[in-house]
Design a protein that fits this description.
This protein has 202 residues and is of the alpha+beta class. The chain is 21% helix and 35% strand. Helix 1 (94-104) crosses helix 3 (166-172).
Length: 202
C-alpha cells in the first residue's frame, strides 16, 4: 500500500444502466501542470495497450467499508486527450448502488492508481513531465471543487486525510435535498483546501 500513488483524471459520465465512461488520465503540458508541477503526455508509458482492462475500485481501496472490493472492470484506450475508460459497475449491494447515484449526481471523478517505484519523470522548465505511470487500477473518487488541486498523492495519507462519509450521506438522503447538497459542497471544499495546504499553496 505505501508505495501506491494516485492522480485525478476527469469526471465520470453515466451512460445509463450501470455503464460509465470518462478520462482516467488527462494530458496537458509544461505550461499547464498540476499543483505539484507534474503533467502527462501521449508519450507517457502507461504500461497498457489499447483495450486492456483494469479493475475498478472505490477510492483506491482505502474506504473503510468498501475497502478493495472490485466494482467492475474498465476498458482503456489512449487518445489525443488522455486515457479514456469505459466500464460497467456490478451493483451487488446498497453501497455499490449508492456509488452509482453519486456518479449520476456528478459527485465522483476518476483517478488512476500507480506504484511510486515505477514512476519516472523528467524536468521541463519548472514542471515535470511524467514519463512512466503504470496504471494498476481505475478508481472512482469524490470530485473536488477545483480538480487542478488534486495532484498525485500517496495513498498511505488518504485514510487520515479525508472524510469517508459520502456514501452514508447518499443512503440517508437519496433525494439529494438542500442539506445533502450543502454537505457535499463542504466535503469537496475541505478536500481541495487540504490539498492546497499540503502543497503549501495556501
Amino acid at each position: 500500500m505505501n508505495n501506491r500513488i494516485a492522480s485525478l483524471g476527469s469526471g465520470i459520465k453515466s451512460l445509463g444502466g450501470n455503464r460509465i465512461e470518462g478520462y482516467l488520465v488527462l494530458f496537458s503540458g509544461a505550461n499547464d501542470p498540476d499543483l505539484q508541477g507534474d503533467y502527462f503526455t501521449k508519450e507517457t508509458n502507461f504500461f497498457i495497450d489499447n483495450y486492456d482492462t483494469r479493475l475498478i475500485l472505490y477510492r483506491h481501496g482505502v474506504h473503510p467499508k468498501i475497502k478493495d472490493k472490485q466494482l467492475g472492470r474498465a476498458t482503456l484506450v489512449v487518445d489525443d486527450a488522455g486515457v479514456f475508460m469505459q466500464g460497467e459497475l456490478l451493483l451487488r449491494d446498497a453501497y455499490e448502488s449508492a456509488i452509482l447515484e453519486l456518479i449520476r449526481a456528478g459527485k465522483l471523478g476518476l483517478s488512476s492508481g500507480s506504484m511510486s517505484h515505477l514512476v519516472e519523470k523528467k524536468q521541463v522548465g519548472k514542471s515535470f513531465q511524467i514519463l512512466s505511470w503504470p496504471i494498476g487500477e481505475a478508481s472512482l473518487t469524490p470530485m473536488p471543487v477545483e480538480p487542478r488541486t488534486c495532484a498525485a498523492v500517496s495513498l498511505k495519507d488518504l485514510p487520515n486525510a479525508y472524510d469517508f462519509s459520502e456514501l452514508d450521506v447518499v443512503l440517508r438522503q437519496p433525494d439529494y435535498n438542500a442539506r445533502a447538497e450543502h454537505e457535499w459542497q463542504k466535503f469537496c471544499d475541505n478536500w481541495a483546501r487540504f490539498e492546497l495546504q499540503r502543497l503549501r499553496i495556501i
